[in-house]
């Protein structure tokens, strides 16, 4: 499950996995961000906050995640991965080959720095 919150006045989407990601999770996120993107054009940033990477509960969930990234990455300026997970710490190196957004990793204790970076 993904817990998400759109800071509409700042154009920042906060995402926090609360257990394995399900196929419908990104549909719910899209229902939140798509109207904002239609109105404003872009998101300033996305902060993914995950102490550890919970994975996906099914192959359909993985595909839903990949489709969400494919459909939305052009509308996001920055992505902050806030985690001590080894998987998420290498995310910026992997993501730069697939997304237009600037992606940066922050340790779990650096949440405030990540949010400040997104606000720049």
UniProtKB/TrEMBL annotation:
InterPro entries: SpoIIAA-like, SpoIIAA-like_sf, STAS_dom_sf
Taxonomy, superkingdom: Bacteria
One Pfam family here: SpoIIAA-like
Name of this protein: STAS/SEC14 domain-containing protein
Organism taxonomic ancestry: Bacteria, Pseudomonadati, Nitrospirota, Nitrospiria, Nitrospirales
